[in-house]
Amino acid sequence: MAIEPAPLDTCTAHLKTCLQNIHKVIQKANEILSSISQPSVCSEVLLSSQGADYISGVVEVYRLSKRMEGGMRARNIDCERLRLVLRDIELSWNNLQAFLSICPSLLQTLVRKSPTWHHAQDSRLAPSQSTLDSAAEGASSDPSPCLQSCCGVCLLDKPVEEFPSEERSGMLNVGGRPYHPSCANFWLHCVDPTLPILACHSNCSACVK
């Protein structure tokens, strides 16, 4: 008899749900572009106003997965099932970049929109290592740090550098919980119409009165 995997804790299940929906968005983009048989037509679609806006949105969704990686590092979360979903995201993302590589001008536009990301020589969009390091900066030695002081989606507890507007406006406060505007937007449109509320662990010194 097959052994059932142990149930995920609430926080890990939350991360898995969000990452799975990120993967769906990127995979859908792959399916749309792979259905276009002619490279010239694919290029025309990508360079259209509507196509460029769509791909820009997909890129931001991928970037959310990288921020979630930073949140996992900052909160000392390590789970094989999450690593598997992250691997699937990277595979789909690498495949998508094959389509984007036929439009160098589009790649350059996407990079210009986010100066903390670099355009490598192989025409790939990739997060700069400094951005990823900054995302997890200040990781706690506490194996169960407070979950009520960080973004309820990505688990980072400060504005995101790759979104300058968020650095200026800070984080949203909904029901007493903070959220990055971009994280909240993805969750509400692609995951669930209600923002997640993560309960902290019972011995958290920041929460226990």
In short:
This protein is mainly alpha-helical and 209 residues long.
Topology (elements, then pairings):
Blueprint: H1 10-34, H2 39-47, H3 49-74, H4 80-100, H5 104-113, E1 117-119, E2 125-127, H6 129-135, H7 164-169, E3 172-174, E4 177-179, H8 181-190
Antiparallel strand pairs: 1-2, 3-4
Helix pairs in contact: 1-3, 1-4, 3-6
How would you sum up this structure, described in words?
This protein is mainly α and 209 residues long. The protein has eight helices and four strands. The protein has helices spanning 10-34, 39-47, 49-74, 80-100, 104-113, 129-135, 164-169, 181-190; strands at residues 117-119, 125-127, 172-174, 177-179. A two-stranded antiparallel ribbon has the order 1-2. Strand 1 and strand 2 (125-127) form a beta hairpin. The longest helix has 26 residues, at 49-74. The chain is elongated. Residues 115-124 and 138-143 have low confidence and may be disordered.
Count up the helices. 8
**Mind summarizing the main beta sheet?**
2 strands, antiparallel
The helix/strand order is HHHHHEEHHEEH
The span between the termini is 46 Å
From the helix content, strand content and strand pairing, which structural class follows? Answer: mainly alpha
Approximately how much helix is present in the residues?
40-55%
Quick one: how many beta strands? 4
**Average pLDDT number:** 75
Strand content: 5-15%
Give the spatial strand order of the biggest sheet.
Answer: 1-2
Identify the overall geometry: elongated
Radius of gyration: 18 Å
Low-confidence region ranges:
115-124, 138-143
